[in-house]
Amino acid sequence: MRAPGKLLTVITLTILTASIAFAASQAIRDIVSPLPSLDSQEFDNIEFSKPTQVDKKPTGNYNCQLRVYVSEPLSRWKDYTDYYYYEHAFLGFGIDTTLSIAYQETVTVTRTWDVSQNTLISDISNSNIEVFAVLFNSEDGGTGISDPLYEDPWGAPFTIHNVDAAAHATPGNPGSDGPSANSTHTVFIEEGTSQTCPNCPYVRAALKSLYESGDYNFLYSAMITDKGAYSYMVNNYNLTYVPSCYFDGGDDILVGGYSQESYYTDRLLSSGQREVPDLDLEVSMSYLGDYQIEFTVSITNNVFSNSAPDTPAAPTGPSAGLLEDEHIFSVAATDPESDQLYYMWDWGDEQSGWIGPFNSGETVNGNHTWSAEGEYSVSVKVKDQYDVESDWSDVRSVKVVRRGNANGDDLINVGDAVFMVSYVFRGGAAPEPIEAGNANCDAWTNVGDAVYLVSYVFRGGLPPGCY
Questions:
Q1: Residues 91 and 47 in one domain
Q2: Which of 130, 188, 373, 403 has the fewest Cβ atoms within 10 angstroms?
Q3: Is the pTM of this model over 0.85?
């Protein structure tokens, strides 16, 4: 065992070299290797926020990237201290493939992996081998940044593909993803690290402590950039500094060497509470001998996919009508899944409640009576049986007038009598609606209505109406 005094010297040297490493990083940031090393103090005055997210809409299938990480629980490789071994160190991908899984479909994939797929090793042990099965959502989850010190204003952007499920297995010990008291799913951390990084041991120690505590529902893999993980981390995350931890595919990021566990637990809880698709993920593995393993991954898509109903066309119905009369409008909406539909009408003066259910494509009538003259816009929207709503339809305009208001000027006076005389005797324009000129309510718009209006205006007769 190494003497405590020497270990203290290593840690002291780590702290002293932090500022030197950062200064050098500005000059070699774009050099392929080595990656700059940062400690936590470089970021004390920088406010970190969650990456920019984009809205997601349900799709027919669950589309993902399935990756199976082959790792060693206790690595053969030591960290910068040259004393402590890495935990869960990445050896290679057993699977890295795109899947599209229909609702209620189960996909099962079986593969083998052996040491010939990693040129850095020549053997593996039955008692020190494991796999992580991880599902990365294929949808664009927004933009993350790997270089928060870069100007203009962020540097090293990458596209987030959120982890929706992760599971772990060792030979003879299968595992599955699942929720816990503080998470909706098993969080997966990719620990970007390097053996030449003086601040990386802080991250290794913190993750090891948290994992062994069992208080948090997460898995992690040490992605050692100088042991085969460099290309993957740069291509997928635009990795700029080590150490850098990527939580759930970049849902959250921690750049720099922090020893305080709260930096990790805050991000574990944040990512762990993210809403994820309803999936079943299971993984099992066995050791076949001759430095070869076999593993099986099973994924079931339980995500109920439901699209919004199609937005209805504008309702059909009259363009003009009489005050206090009932007016009938019609519409027919469809739903992509042929779900039953409920209708809500906007009459311009009030809205109806939800009316239904009706079959998809069925013609539905809506009836309304207006109590004030004016121009009204009638529209309708629908929702399906799962309460997913369409947009409002285009409007149908309708002008509502009183009986006797033949010229549509909102007044009943001599002008309406003149309008009716012109319509009846001189072929002038007709009232709109035609019923507006039917002052005596006899179902005919003719000379009798003109006489009725003259009597009302000049002789004090009854106002237009049905008596």
A1: yes
A2: 373
A3: no
